[in-house]
Fold this sequence. Notes:
Elements: H1 9-23, H2 30-36, H3 41-44, H4 51-65, H5 75-91, H6 96-100, H7 108-123, H8 128-153, H9 162-165, H10 175-180, H11 184-189, H12 193-208
Helix pairs in contact: 1-4, 5-7, 5-8, 5-12, 7-8, 8-12
Amino acid sequence: MPPARSLQRDDIVETAITILERDGVEGLSMRRLAIELDSKPMTLYHYVPNKSALLSLALSEIAARIPWVTPTGNPRDRMVIIAMDMFDKLREIPWIVSILSQGTNVGTPALALADEFFTAAAELGVNEQDTLDLWRAVWYLVVSELQWLDTLAHRNADDQSWHEKMDPVQVAHLPRVAAIIPRWRELSAGFDIRRAIEAQIDGVIARAQR
């Protein structure tokens, strides 16, 4: 009987990333990973306790490899650059949305972005509570937009959105909503995440500088 293959956690994480890039999050399981490594699922559990931990390790490794932009300029502009770079770089990784939607920890490498963001906020006199609130708001905005773009990418061309299926009578008592619904698709297409992020940041800065 041949000896069991010697495994290293780095090998496990690298193989998991390969599966994620090829088959997405749904295609990754401890069983599939064991097959790829010519091992057994129970053996893998000695290195990684569960799939959630494995996803965190994979995401952390990917975050460490991303060539994040070094922000320059005034503090406000640096905050915008950090947020937009985060959005742009994560958008390039197709399988990342499914992981982020599960609340998976992105690991220490991504905290370097937060540190840059926090530093810029401190230079503008934003207190720690507002800084963390703003970081979370920007992060949620980035993740939700990535999820929405992923949904659009997998939608059939003839699929109707909820507002296109709605009977106008249902919102007749809501005049402002009723007025906007016919233009909902047009206005949604005009959404600009950079503009939304800038509005979040500018609002907090304005409050801090009163």
